[in-house]
Amino acid sequence: xxxxxxxxxxxxxxxxxxxxxxxxxxxxxxxxxxxxxxxxxxxxxxxxxxxxxxxxxxxxxxxxxxxxxxxxxxxxxxxxxxxxxxxxxxxxxxxxxxxxxxxxxxxxxxxxxxxxxxxxxxxxxxxxxxxxxxxxxxxxxxxxxxxxxxxxxxxxxxxxxxxxxxxxxxxxxx
Length: 174
Fold this sequence. Notes:
The protein has one helix at 2-12; strands spanning 16-18, 27-32, 35-40, 45-52, 54-61, 72-79, 82-87, 91-98, 100-103, 108-113, 116-121, 129-133, 135-145, 148-156, 162-166, 171-172. By secondary structure, it is mainly β. A 4-stranded antiparallel β-sheet has the order 1-2-3-4, covered by helices on one side.
């Protein structure tokens, strides 16, 4: 542990190293001058640059995680009062613009913007469902193949009516 702390201080001039179990074992939060990033121990590289006000949450996905056919992670990060989600290789999964981003389970994240809710389906080929609903919750998944399910979400509109939206963004209302 001390060797790793020293490496972060030497290689990245880090003045903060978090090794307390906040992240899955493969990653550690590192910081410099009150900015933070994520270091991948397995790859021996800084996978998210030290540029965020905080790393709020890290979720690991591996080959044993249900519905997730690849290794990797999603990290919820904060800049100012805004949150977003960064994935493996510093890929922006959700732009850092949301009021809230919360992991619901291994399969999806909710996001909130200006009082409206949306949903990110992990490992989906489709973009996130835009935050335009009063509420959104997973309703049912449909088997596609051994590595893929399609998710259907129940949503509530501002007028109080209920409907459904597929992970592809297509809405189903009466």
